UniProtKB/TrEMBL annotation:
MF GO annotations: metal ion binding
GO-annotated cellular components: chromosome, centromeric region; nucleus; spindle
Native source organism of the sequence: Arenaria interpres (Ruddy turnstone)
Keywords recorded for this protein, A-Z: Cell cycle, Cell division, Centromere, Chromosome, Chromosome partition, Cytoplasm, Cytoskeleton, Metal-binding, Mitosis, Nucleus, Phosphoprotein, Ubl conjugation, Zinc
Top-rank taxon: Eukaryota
Classification via CDD domains: BIR
Protein name: BIRC5 protein
Pfam families: BIR
PANTHER family documented for this protein: BACULOVIRAL IAP REPEAT-CONTAINING PROTEIN 5, DETERIN
Subcellular location: Chromosome, Centromere; Cytoplasm, Cytoskeleton, Spindle; Nucleus
Gene name of this polypeptide: Birc5
GO biological process assignments: cell division; chromosome segregation
Family named by the database record: Belongs to the IAP family.
Principal location: nucleus
Length: 133
């Protein structure tokens, strides 16, 4: 399976939480985070950053009592992963491909937005250089 498709499996997502700061006696355990669609993507300054593999929403500043599913819904209510009416393992091929098409659209929009921002930054710099000639 392609790497992106492996992220549909809760276990694959749960395995990204090896260094997650909340493990026992809290609502946001690695298992609950993964079940809500999150991947753990820590940085040096933010050890508790989690990102939905589907809608790409990043959340940080987790507290032990935070419910991952409630937080996901609160911050990204439009995530198609949250509105599924059946378990991912019970989707037909057609349903899965339709769902994954939405994930790809979201990823492409984000990437295009980042590229446009880079191009705009270069254009501003070039414009300043031309004005200084």
């Amino acid at each position: 399976l392609p790497e992106e498709w492996q992220l549909y499996f809760v276990l694959t997502r749960a395995n990204t939480f090896r260094s997650w700061p909340f493990t026992e006696g809290c609502a946001c355990t690695p298992e609950q985070m993964a079940a809500a669609g999150f991947l753990h993507c820590p940085s040096e300054n933010s050890p508790d950053v989690a990102q939905c593999f589907f809608c790409l929403k990043e959340l940080e500043g987790w507290e032990p009592d935070d419910d991952p599913l409630k937080e996901h819904k609160k911050h990204s209510a439009g995530c198609a992963l949250l509105s599924l009416q059946k378990d991912l393992t019970n989707l037909t091929l057609q349903e899965f491909l339709k769902l994954d098409r939405e994930r790809v659209k979201i990823a492409m929009k984000r990437e295009m937005s980042q590229k446009v921002t880079c191009i705009e930054d270069v254009a501003k710099r070039v414009r300043r250089e031309i004005e200084n000639l």
